[in-house]
Amino acid sequence: MDRAQKEKVVADLDQIFASSGVVVVAHYVGMTVAQMQDLRAKMREVGGSVRVAKNKLARIALDGKPGVKMGNLLMGMTVLAFSDDPVAAAKVAEAYAKVNDKFVILGGAMGDTVLDQAGVKAVASLPSREELIAQIVGMIGSPASALAGAIGAPAANIASILSTIEEKAAA
Question: How far is CA 141 from CA 80, 149, 153, 165, in A?
Fold first, then answer.
C-alpha cells in the first residue's frame, strides 16, 4: 500500500470516527469469508457497516478525536462495526457474537465515551432509534385517544339509556 492509499484509508476512517453514532471494535480471528459477508449483510440491514483496517492507520485517524482512548483496543486482527444510529451496530455485533464464538467484542466508542465489553452490551440492550420514536408517538397519541374516549362516553351512555327506555316502552 503506497502513501496515497494510506492517506485515503486514514481519511475514510477519520470520517467514520467523526460521523458514527457508535463504533464497535472486535477480533475476528478464524472467521471465514462467508461469516464475514454474513456480518456485513446484517450490519447493512440496520444501516451500519463493517470495516477491516490496519490498526496503525486507525490509530492515526483517531488522533485528536473524542474516542482517542479507543486506540488501546486496536491490537491484533480487529474489525470496526459502526452505524449512525447509536444503538444499531452494537445490537448487531452483540447478537453476532452470541452465535459466532470467533467474533469477540473488545469494546468501542460512543461519541467521546469509550466502551468496554460490558458497555457495548449495555448499549446493545437500549431500544433503537425507531423503537424510541414509536414509544414517543404512542405516548403523545395516548392522551388524545383517552380524551376522545371520555368525550364519546357520555353520548354512548345516553344512547344506551335511550335504547333501554325504547325497549321498555315497546314491551
Answer: 39, 12, 18, 36
Per the CB < 8 A criterion, the answer to whether 46 and 86 are in contact is no
pLDDT digits (tens, 9 = 90+) for 25-71: 999 999 999 999 999 999 999 999 999 989 899 898 888 777 778 88
What is the sign of the dihedral through the CA atoms of 127, 128, 131 and 132?
positive
User: Cβ-count burial of 22 within 10 angstroms (0-12 exposed, 13-18 middle, 19+ buried)?
Assistant: buried
Residue 62 CA to residue 18 CA, distance in Å, equals: 9
Q: Which residues is 107 bridged to in the sheet?
A: 25
Instruction: Report the alpha-carbon distance of residue 34 to residue 106 in Å, rounded.
Output: 22
Look at residue 46 and give its three-state secondary structure.
coil
pLDDT digits (tens, 9 = 90+) for 79-131: 999 988 888 899 999 999 999 999 999 999 887 788 889 888 988 888 777 77
- Rounded to two decimals, the pTM is 0.72
**Residues sharing a CB contact under 8 Å with residue 52, sequence separation 6 or more, in sequence order:** 28, 78, 79, 80
Q: How many Cβ atoms from other residues are within 10 Å of residue 139's Cβ?
A: 9
CA distance 144 to 149: 9
Residue type, 148: A
